[in-house]
Write a structure and sequence with these properties.
By secondary structure, the chain is mostly helical. The chain has 10 helices and 2 strands, in the order ααααααααβααβ. The protein has a single domain, classed as Endonuclease III, domain 1 (Orthogonal Bundle). Strands 1-2 form a two-stranded parallel sheet.
Length: 195
């Protein structure tokens, strides 16, 4: 009886920063660089990116579900109403980053997020104005070609800080822009790269 050869599963070419971690691969394949205009999805990215400051994205991504539980499924209205009692409770939560400044910063940023929603109709309208409502497509060839900030992320950071946002330096803003698809930085050779 002839034996069937098992077809070897071909691995997709991805951006080199992704590595072999399954969660990082799913994030890269389904989220990173894809435009998001929904305010809840944008607030989620803001919460995760501001908590990433000084840490690896992999660390934050692996805690994403815990952040969702801790911060009311990223509902800015509910997060804005969190109290000092909530802060103390979250300081004991080993599933998130237990950094008082980041926890209080998340609550502070939620209040300011709602203010921008009121001013612009949606936070999306405000945040996407930094790229004229369009995705900036980069075509990095290697890790060395990735930006850590741009004129757009500098302008975003400056305006957010002026409004009182915390943990929104230009580097964090640039990562946030990549995460919500304001920037598409899939590297040349990645199966998701624009040709």
């Amino acid at each position: 009886m002839p034996t069937k050869k098992l077809a070897k599963k071909k691995e997709k070419n991805r951006c080199s920063w992704v590595g072999s971690d399954p969660q990082m691969q799913v994030y890269h394949d389904t989220v990173w660089g894809r435009p998001k205009k929904d305010d809840i999805e944008i607030f989620e990215a803001l919460v995760l990116d501001t908590n990433q400051a000084g840490l690896s994205w992999k660390c934050i991504l692996h805690k994403r579900d815990n952040f969702a539980k801790a911060f009311h499924n990223f509902d800015p209205k509910k997060v804005s109403k969190m109290t000092n009692k909530d802060v103390e409770r979250l300081m004991q939560n080993t599933g998130i980053i237990r950094h008082r400044g980041k926890i209080t910063g998340t609550i502070n940023n939620a209040k300011l997020f709602l203010g921008i929603q009121k001013e612009y109709g949606t936070f999306s309208k405000y945040i996407w104005s930094f790229t004229g409502g369009k995705t900036i497509v980069g075509k990095p060839r290697s890790i060395a070609d990735y930006h850590t900030h741009t004129a757009e992320s500098d302008a975003m950071s400056k305006d957010l800080k002026k409004r009182g946002f915390i943990f929104t330096g230009s580097t964090i803003c640039y990562a946030f822009m990549q995460g919500i698809g304001m920037v598409d930085d899939h590297a040349q050779g990645c199966f998701l790269a624009h040709r």
